[in-house]
Amino acid sequence: MSNNIKVVCRFRPQNALEIREGGQPIVSFDDNGQSVKVESKEYPGTFTFDRIFPWTAKQNDVFEYSISPIVDDVINGYNGTVFAYGQTGSGKTFTMMGPSIDDEETKGIIPRIVDKIFASILASPSTMEYTVKVSYMEIYMEKIRDLLNPVNDNLPIHEEKNRGVYVKGLFEVYVSSIAEIHEVMRRGGNSRMVAYTNMNAESSRSHSIFVVTISQKNLLDGSVKSGKLYLVDLAGSEKVGKTGASGQTLEEAKKINKSLSALGMVINALTDGKSTHIPYRDSKLTRILQESLGGNSRTTLIINCSPSSYNDAETVGTLRFGTRAKSIKNKAKVNQELSAAELKLLLKKAKTEAMTFTQYIAALEGEVTIWRQGGTVPKTDWASMEKIQVGGGATPLSSLPGHMTQLDTSRPSTPAVALELDEREEFLKRENELTDQIAEKEAELLARQQLVDSMREELTFLKEQDSPNAVHELNDLKLQLEKVLYESKEGAITVDSLREANQELSKELEELKKTLMEIRLAQKDSNEDNKEKKKMEKMAQMMANLDPSGELSAKEAQMRETLSKFESPAGLTPEEASALRKEIAQARSLIEQHEQTIADLNNENVSLTLNRDALEMRLQTAELEYEELLDKTIADEEANSSIDVLETISELRVKLEAQYSAKRDQAQQEIEALKQEIARRNEDIQRLSSNVTDLRRGNEELKEQLERQSNHTSSGLWEGKDMTERERDMERIRKTMAQQLADFDVMKKALMRDLQNRCEKVVELEISLDETREQYNNVLRNSNNKAQQQKMAFLERNLEQLTLVQKKLVEQNSALKKEVAISERKLAARNERIANLEGLLQDAQENLTSQNHKFETQLRALRERLEQARSQKSAAVNFGRIAKPLRGGVAAVDNG
Ligand SMILES: Nc1ncnc2c1ncn2[C@@H]1O[C@H](COP(=O)(O)OP(=O)(O)OP(=O)(O)O)[C@@H](O)[C@H]1O
Question: Do 173 and 148 contact (CB within 8 A), yes or no?
Fold first, then answer.
């Protein structure tokens, strides 16, 4: 029996968006409710369907007309399908489920179907036993998710000869009441919601399929029938671009639309009248619903439309789809299994038929043998089935009333050779097993392929992203390492050269010190020689200037002459003698004065010597200080050779000049003091000289007196008496004079010695002064010229070396600058790379965060699924997995 797909059309009211956008209702309906006219400028047209429901139609109206008969069919053992097709928001879900399954007024056709199923079961005779089981799945992105066991989100489709196409592993829940089936629907609905939230997807992009399987057993004759009802809420039929299914790739969009486009293709192929191949296998949806489209099913298609001009294109598209689908022809038949008696009869007849065939074969073989042996068989004796049937009375199998679904030879690949039932079952069983295995292997292969692809992608990504960076980084590091090694080598060389320069400088310093010592020693020796010579010369000069011995000798000679005169018989007159005494007394006082002066000079000499010693000490100290200072300065300079040398030298010069000027001033003062001393001594010497001159003059006067005495003696007369006395006096005077002369002589000698000593001292002092001056000059010269020049030369040498070093440093600096520029470039490149890496890292972090988020939501979903699975498991223990037969006219039959 062939029957067309029933197509009904339902319009919803204009929604808020359409009204807001100025949409107007553009559809009008004819009175018999089968035709709709679309008054659109672009898409005008009239469409006719089995029934058209305007937006005023109630849920129950739709159900009663379009669905209710299907429920009866299913209960009677037919397969049934209800599709809801239309653009998003056109009212598919509203029609199928309704806003609330518990609300009598608004509940959709599925709850009403359920109500009717249970009502029909209850209304059936008690000899009928029913089991009702439901499953709930959805197809999203070409993956089948079990909404009653969401852990299974990619179930495979299998096909078995005796079972047809089915989803392997789909959870089937036995239900025995409306409440239970409602509970199952709610769970499925919740799973769907959770899945969408997790996938960030829209429910309108998936197809949901609610399957109700009703098996019935006639307890009287044991016959069994089963009907399966597919209730399909299709995904939105609009083009993906219009609703802007955001965030999805073209590939995803293709997958989302695949089932729907395949549905269109299947409908086209079924309705164009020329296609020999129906592309059921092109999508999961069309495969699952293979029997619903052009197969064993009573199918109703509900097309849901918007009445608004705002959605005219989509509405017309939907109407055209419905029009095409209208012409699909199905061949629905009852899915019935034979009872035991019928099977026995069937077996008996099959055996008879087999025997008939055996007889027919034997007859044929006999005839063939005759023909092969060259004999002939008359036409009337030719073996035929009729003769054998007439003879044996066998009935052909195909003519038996009723047949099993499993034996349906209409299936494309059913073997043509007639097999025994057992063999056939065995064969099918084996074939199923193999098909399962192949499907499993295929799934496994697919999963592995996906894994390999993802790993390949990851590898490519890693190669693209990380490997070049890592290689680049490694190269950079190698370069840096080489550079660092090179720099360290160069640094070591510089240090070595500086060390060598330092050693050379130290050697030079030592040599300079040695030379300085030698020069000093030589200077000291020559100074001592010079000193001696000078002393001698000075002494000679001074003694020559003074000529004391000569004067005194002359005076002595005069004195002696005078004495000799005294000793002569004439002798001195008393006046002469007294004058002579006076003179002598004066000379004595003079000599005493001289002695005093000499003592004073002595004292002064001592103090001058002390002064000189002190000066020498100070000079030595100054020299030592100067040397120390010089050494220290040189050491400092050596140590701080890298500091500005010129500045240091100028500072040193200023310091030295200050020190020397201080010392010069000091020495100048001391020289001034010494000069004053010398002047004072010269004065003393002059005074002594004038005294000596006075003495000479006194001597001359004495000489004159003595001469006068001698003249008087030669002309006068000496009386006898007085002569003796005079002689005694004279003798006394002579003795006294002699004594005085001796004393004077001693004194003179002492004075001369003293004078000589003094002169020596004065000379020494003068020499010392000269030396001091010379030393001072030397020091000054040394400091200003020689030493300083040496030091300057030394410093200049140092400066030259330092200049060289500086040159080197400048060169190194420029080289370093180049390196710095390179390093800066490298640094910039590295910074850029770091920025890139940071960007990548940020991206990776963002990805990671989003993945994390995704994982978290997936984890949450998994947990929820687990919870659901657990609860389902427990629920299954309660009702889901155990069939609860329902007896007609009564409630669920207790299995126990
Ligand atoms: N016949 C109707 N009468 C009143 N309201 C309706 C009707 N049909 C649909 N609606 C309302 O329109 C809105 C969209 O309907 P529904 O969700 O059923 O569309 P849908 O086609 O299933 O969309 P989707 O493809 O996104 O699942 C809902 O708010 C629903 O209540």
Answer: yes
Residue 736 makes CB contacts below 8 A (sequence gap 6+) with none
Helix (H) or strand (E) holding 541: helix 421-546
- For 729-776, the three-class secondary structure string (H helix, E strand, C coil) is HHHHHHHHHHHHHHHHHHHHHHHHHHHHHHHHHHHHHHHHHHHHHHHH
Neighbours of 436 (CB within 10 A): 14
Q: Residue 855 to residues 118, 155, 376, 860: CA-CA distances in angstroms? A: 42, 21, 85, 8
Measured by CA distance, the residue closest to atom 10 of ligand 1 is: 91
- Structural domains of the chain, count: 2
Confidence of residue 833 (pLDDT cuts 50, 70, 90): low
Q: Find the residues whose C-beta lies inside 6 A of ligand 1.
A: 12-13, 15, 55, 86, 88-94, 99, 203-204, 236, 304
Distance CA 127, CA 124 (A): 8
Name the residue of 66, 93, 101 whose CB sits within 8 Å of the most ligand 1 atoms, as the mutation to test its pocket: 93
Q: Is 698 annotated as a binding residue?
A: no
Residue pLDDT, tens place only, 61-89:
999 988 888 888 888 888 899 999 999 88
Query: 146 by DSSP, 3-state: which?
Result: strand
Tell me if 91 is assigned to a ligand binding site: yes
**Each residue's pLDDT tens digit, 261-317:** 888 888 888 888 787 888 888 889 999 988 888 888 888 999 999 999 998 888 999
Q: What is the DSSP letter of 408?
A: -
For residue 272, what are the CA distances in angstroms to 275, 280, 282, 298? 7, 15, 18, 20
Q: Identify the H or E element spanning 253.
A: helix 250-271
Residue-range definition of the domain harbouring residue 359: 345-377
134 is a domain residue: yes
Distance CA 199, CA 186 (A): 20
CA distance 348 to 888: 33
* CATH code at position 60: 3.40.850.10
Nearest CA to ligand 1 atom 14: 89
Picking from 274, 301, 334, the residue at the C-terminal end of a domain is: 334
| Whether residue 223 sits in one domain with residue 361 | no
The token duo for 399 is 């003519």
Whether 232 and 88 map to the same domain: the answer is yes
Of 334, 368, 399, the one marking the end of a domain is 334
560 band by pLDDT with thresholds 50, 70 and 90: low
Which residues lie closer than 8 Å to 350 by C-beta, 6 or more apart? 397, 420, 421
Residue 86 alpha carbon, nearest atom of ligand 1? 21
Asked if residue 330 and residue 358 are part of one domain, the reply reads no
Residues 353 and 251 in one domain: no
Spacing of C-alpha 489 from chain mean position: 31
Whether residue 565 is contained in a domain is answered as no
Can you give the pTM of this predicted structure?
A: 0.47
Strand partners, 823: none
- Is residue 273 domain-shared with residue 236, that is, in the same domain? yes
Nearest-CA residue for ligand 1 atom 1 is 12
pLDDT bin (cut points 50, 70, 90) of residue 161 is confident
Residue range 538-547: mean pLDDT, rounded: 62
Does residue 141 share a domain with residue 193? yes
What DSSP string runs through 571-619?
Answer: ---HHHHHHHHHHHHHHHHHHHHHHHHHHHHHHHHHHHHHHHHHHHHHH
Ligand 1 nearest-atom number relative to CA 235: 25
- Judge whether 84 and 95 are in contact, CB under 8 Å: yes
Q: Which two tokens stand for residue 163?
A: 């079972």
In a domain, 370, yes or no: yes
Give CA torsion, residues 105, 108, 111, 113, to 10 deg: 110
Q: Which atom of ligand 1 is nearest to the CA of 202?
A: 26
269 assigned to some structural domain: yes
Give me the residues paired with residue 29 across strands: 36
272 and 364 part of one domain? no
